[in-house]
Every structure is written in structure tokens, then in C-alpha cells.
Recover the amino acids of this structure.
């Protein structure tokens, strides 16, 4: 479903050693969010560095495609609890007792902005509500209960960047509704005094091994004419990709710099309106992206392309998005989307280019 490949092989997990290295960060780095929950909305977004306030909405993990990981720790007063472990994984968000949340939603109901801490809690057998935390096997803590004589609160700390030294957002309202925003996040699920420094999840050290962490992004390279005619849009399967100079039977890639690839059309070609019902600019895994609302016709094509015995099962399916006589992007799909209607394109886009491309594709 998504253009980028991710590493999913788990490294050996040395949890005992990691737990011994647990540490905390100064409460000076905590930004308190007492009135809003963590669902991905236009008012709760990250920019492409993961730090503050992009105007673009965040979409969470793509169902059937994304395999993200988040490090977490559960803390009651001054006690750091053992990681959750459960064989239950009805929707694809769970933990293996390794201090990591494994986020690979199976269905649309657990993907995108519906991928929340609530679904993780359900799979692990605990509950996380505003002002109340109940652990597996019993034990409930509520706002106002005491921690060594000091009133505590239920909250979740979320690190803004995939690094323990980064700023932390402390969320009190609707903590179970916090949506997973990117691969490689860090979370503390806590009942503790409101000014307690957060405990860094020990398993953060595993994230570089299991996650596709987005570091400093290169300069955006995708080029698109914001005034392009929407009727010039087409989507088609790619038969082959070559290097320049392009021949008369090839379509050049539209790039801002560097050599453009040359794409040869395959047999399956869709006019833009045949494949795309709508489009919008979003943030996906800390990167500007374009989310397509695809038509039933195009959805059926994608599913049929991965029928048993088809070449796409082994080598994937490359779909070119052509605008004004040039290929803007050409994602490699390794499997059909688990979503009936949504397809996310990312890589090489700036926020402005994502907005321009979405506007052209939306017609």
C-alpha cells in the first residue's frame, strides 16, 4: 500500500538489561496537555520533524501495510511494572512482553486514526480512561488516589521525537484515544503525581533495530505543477523502469533535481477520475503525504492484481501517478490494501507539494 519498505525483523530482546537501564528525564521537558486527548486531528498534528504544528492532519498506520513499533513503560507511583504480555491480538496491536507495542493493524477498524492506545489496552487486558487506570488481573487507580501521601493522576506521556532526550507531551484527557502517529514513538502510561519526571521506556533502545525511523529528510524532490489540468491525471501499472534519456515510448519522472527515471506503461491504465474519488494532503509517519480516496473500480483492480499466481505476489506492483505528461510518483505496492477506500503516497514531498498534488488529484 505504501511506497517505502520497512524493516520488521526483531532483534534479540535483552529485557532484563534494558529494565536495569531505565531512567527519567527532567520535568522541564514536559508539555502538559490537560484538556485534549491524543486523536489525530488538525489541532493535534506533528510537523515533518515530529516537533510541533503542521497544518496537515496525521494519519496513523496503514492497515495491511504498516508495521510500526512503539516503546512503552507502565508506571504506578514510583514502581515501573513488567511489560504487558498477551497472546490476544484480534486487531493487530499488541505486545510480546518485550516493552514494545507492535502496531500492524489487520483491518480498517484498527488502522489509520483508529489505531489507538485503547486497542492496545483491549488486547493486553487493561483499561485506560480519563482519570482511571485498571491493570490486567485487577488493581485500579483513580485521580486523587495517593502516591506516598501525594495525590496522583492518570496520564500518558508521549515523546515528540523517537529519542528519549526529546520533549514530552503529558496528556490527561482521553488517554486511551491517543492515536499512534508514527513508527518509533515512546510512551509512558502512568498513575503518578502530576509533576513527576517521566520514566523513559527501556525498550527505546530496540527501536532502531525494529522500526523504520525517519531521520532528517532529504530535500523534497517531487515536482508537480499546481495548475495542472486534472483531466491530465492518469494511474497505470508500470511495465518497466529505465534510465534517461527517455525514449518516445517512455514517460519521464517529474523531479526537482537529479536524473529522472523513465517509465513504460503497462496494460492497465485509468483516467484520474476513474481511480481517484478525492485526495488530501496529510502527514504519514512524520512525512508529508497524499491520501487518496480510491474508487471501487480501482480497488478491484488492486485486489485482482494480487490474485493467487499473479506476478505481483512475488515482485509487487508499481503504480505510476501521471500528471501533465510526467510521472509524479510511482509507489511499489507489495500487497493489496486492507482499506477499501484509502491509499497513502509518501516520499519526496514537501508540505506545499503534497497540498498541490492533492489539489490536482482531487480535481
Amino acid at each position: 500500500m505504501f511506497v517505502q519498505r520497512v524493516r520488521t525483523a526483531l532483534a534479540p530482546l535483552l529485557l532484563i538489561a534494558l529494565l536495569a537501564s531505565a531512567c527519567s528525564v527532567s520535568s522541564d521537558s514536559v508539555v502538559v496537555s490537560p484538556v485534549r486527548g491524543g486523536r489525530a486531528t488538525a489541532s493535534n498534528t506533528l510537523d515533518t520533524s515530529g516537533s510541533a504544528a503542521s497544518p496537515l492532519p496525521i494519519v496513523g498506520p496503514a492497515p495491511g501495510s504498516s508495521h510500526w513499533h512503539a516503546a512503552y513503560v507502565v508506571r504506578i507511583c514510583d514502581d515501573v511494572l513488567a511489560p504487558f504480555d498477551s497472546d490476544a491480538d484480534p486487531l493487530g496491536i499488541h505486545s510480546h512482553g518485550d516493552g514494545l507495542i507492535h502496531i500492524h493493524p489487520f483491518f480498517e477498524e484498527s488502522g489509520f486514526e483508529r489505531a489507538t492506545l485503547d486497542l492496545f489496552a483491549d488486547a493486553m487486558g487493561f483499561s485506560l480512561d480519563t482519570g482511571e487506570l485498571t491493570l490486567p488481573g485487577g488493581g485500579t487507580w483513580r485521580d486523587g488516589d495517593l502516591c506516598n501521601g501525594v495525590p496522583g493522576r492518570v496520564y500518558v506521556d508521549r515523546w515528540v521525537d523517537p529519542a528519549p532526550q526529546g520533549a514530552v507531551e503529558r496528556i490527561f484527557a482521553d488517554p486511551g484515544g491517543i492515536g499512534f502517529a508514527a513508527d518509533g514513538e515512546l510512551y509512558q502510561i502512568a498513575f503518578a503525581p502530576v509533576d513527576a519526571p517521566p520514566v523513559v521506556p527501556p525498550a527505546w533502545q530496540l527501536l532502531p533495530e525494529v522500526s523504520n525511523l525517519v531521520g532528517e529528510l532529504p530535500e523534497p524532490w517531487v515536482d508537480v505543477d499546481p495548475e495542472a489540468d486534472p483531466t491530465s491525471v492518469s494511474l497505470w501499472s508500470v511495465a518497466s523502469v529505465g534510465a534517461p534519456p527517455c525514449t518516445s515510448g517512455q514517460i519521464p519522472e517529474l523531479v526537482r533535481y537529479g536524473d529522472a527515471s523513465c517509465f513504460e506503461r503497462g496494460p492497465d491504465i485509468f483516467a484520474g477520475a476513474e481511480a481517484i474519488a478525492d485526495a488530501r494532503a496529510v502527514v504519514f509517519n512524520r512525512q508529508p503525504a497524499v491520501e487518496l480516496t480510491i474508487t471501487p473500480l480501482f480497488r478491484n483492480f488492486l485486489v485482482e492484481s494480487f490474485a493467487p499466481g499473479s506476478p505481483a505476489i512475488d515482485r509487487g506492483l508499481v503504480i505510476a501517478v501521471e500528471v501533465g505528461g510526467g510521472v509524479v510518483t510511482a509507489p511499489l505496492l507489495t500487497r493489496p490494501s486492507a482499506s477499501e477506500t484509502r491509499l497513502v503516497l509518501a516520499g519526496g514531498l514537501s508540505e506545499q507539494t503534497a497540498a498541490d498534488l492533492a489539489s490536482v488529484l482531487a480535481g
Remarks:
- The helical segments are 15-20, 117-124, 207-210, 272-275, 296-305, 312-315, 351-362.
- The CA atoms of residues 159 and 168 lie 4 Å apart.
- The chain has two domains: 21-210, 230-362.
